[in-house]
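User: For a benchmark we're assembling, each entry needs the component sequences followed by a predicted structure for the full assembly. Here are entry 17's components. Please fill in the structure.
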Amino acid sequence: MSEGFAIDVQGMTKRFGDRTVVNKINLQVRAGEIYGFLGPNGSGKTTFIRMLCGLLRADEGKGTCLGYDLLTQSEEIKRHVGYMTQRFSFYEDLSIAENLDFVARMYGVANRRQAVRESIKQLGLAGRQDQLTGELSGGWKQRVALAACLIHHPKLLLLDEPTAGVDPKARRDFWEQLHQLAAQGLTVLVTTHYMDEAERCHRLAYISYGNLLTHGTLAEVIARARLTTWAVSGPDLPGLAGELRSSSGIDQAVAFGTSLHVSGSDRAALQSAIAPYRTDKYEWHEIDSSLEDVFIHLMQSSQDNFAA
Amino acid sequence: MTRHSPISLARLWGIVVKEFVQMRRDRLTFGMILGIPLLQLLLFGFAINGDPRHLPAGIIMSDHGPQGRTILAALRNSTYFDFTRQLNSEAEGREALARGDVQFVINIPENFTRDLIRGERPAILVEADATDPAATGNALGSLSTILNEGLSHDLKGPLTFLASNPGPIDLRVHALYNPEAITHYNIVPGLMGVILTMTMVMITGLAITRERERGTMENLLSMPTRPTEVLLGKIIPYIVVGYIQVGLILTAARYIFHVPMEGNLGLLLAAALIFIAANLAMGITFSTIARNQLQAMQLAFFVFLPSILLSGFMFPFRGMPAWAQCIGELFPLTHFLRIVRGILLKNNGADAVINELWPIALFAAVMLTIGIKRYRQTLD
Ligand SMILES: Nc1ncnc2c1ncn2[C@@H]1O[C@H](COP(=O)(O)OP(=O)(O)O)[C@@H](O)[C@H]1O
Ligand SMILES: [Mg+2]
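Assistant: Structure for entry 17:
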């Protein structure tokens, strides 16, 4: 593996017709790391993951996945990768056990029957193994899918929005498990829209309109954004937000519960912009920018740059 | 770890098992597997089994002796013929046939009785509108028996010698409009080929497109499965299905339609294997070409219709123009029809069968190769 990177790709590009959906993305993911991949819908996350596991041919770019060449060794890559698709894509007309058994056969898992039995037990699916997966709820489908992705003991997990539509308790359990697996050396690349999940990742990347806008640890991503944020509370916050958004020096004003987060990349300009509103009516104080502030900021500036 | 490892039997078997389970759960497909042969046998069976009687017939009676009347009575008693028209000349008879007023014209010539008793074997001319051979087949088939039995009452005493070979009369049958009268012996074995073509191509035609439409393809492709394994894995379960259909049709042929089974059934089953595989290969290849299930169906019909029309099932193969015969030779059905009819009706042996079998095998190999080449290993 190249210098301990489970994923090491450069210049990955994918076009559909004349639309560039993934644009020259470089990404390095260390072995044993949970890497969060964020970005608005349609930004190219799924497309990028599909290129990693050989489901789509990259138009440009090169690199390695688990040390195997992306372009020539996709067979080996498939053998050691577990890919959980965004949409449930196991056979709904097969039972849980039948699906697991099928996957185990495809990967040539040793002691197949036992592996299936254990996987069912581990995930707390015992007693339901003969239920058709088509009849399961979203949370259970997600558990089955994860179990199936893990049955061949992959070295790299690619999870595409694995927790979309799953309740908070199940999400928390899911992330517990990811961290346990990572501790055992498994590398995980996971896409998500949830900020709390993003914050649980060792490292993050943010992608928009196919462009990688930022990446690094949580602290690095926030620091690199150089965003100043003030929280304000008081009467008629929506009205205030409308006024603030139109003043220069303020990039965004976003409601968070009972307060408003007002952010700008130019600290001095932001302060002079909010000065007229710092009256007795409102209570202002400066806060650390949150990941969400940063991502909203990234999303807005990328829209300005790339949409047209 | 080579990039070109041979196919894995374990993975192949895994796909076979999965397909079997899915087939068992898919009521509609399962219904199609049993329903289509039953329905077709039933539909064709009416035409075949229906032994039409009381067919309109015209008579040209130029004889005035007792034996002429005997003949007429015998024909009437058989209930095959209803004499609806008295005709005066052959020309008038032809006209009635052409208009479809009558199905048969029976001509008993002048001096029939006299010539019969003299042992001169007078001719009885029967002209039949054989456009629909199923309608006339049975009547014509039993004609000589009807006539001979009818006359046998008259031919007693000194006339007994007339009943011996070559028989008292010279029966001349003219089947008009469709000289190569196909009988049900021909149709039921042919039906085996037609039913197999239809169901096998349709079932596998859906195999790959269904995975695409349900989104399971993304998962399948992300696993280290090879195209050959997927395609073969989807073909093998349906060979069993094909054999179930063959069994169904053979049973019906034997016990409902009383088709003679002259030949070697083992040989027939072996040939059927190749034929089934060829159709499955064709279906799976359509499946790799089609974008969705509807397109796969359309492709299946695109081949199914010419197969039926040009294989010799619908129309006598030798009656077709040369170009149509050339196209017909391409279809597995054409060759399989010859094999089935050859084995069942003519007791053909392996030599004759192999002559028709290799084109089918070649077809299967070509189709499978195209399928494997066309099978997209990415979602592009
Ligand atoms: N097979 C395809 N053909 C054409 N366009 C596609 C295809 N797959 C994805 N796209 C487009 O590429 C863009 C990125 O999609 P996707 O990778 O699914 O984004 P994300 O997963 O981040 O929501 C979208 O605009 C989508 O419509
Ligand atoms: Mg996506």
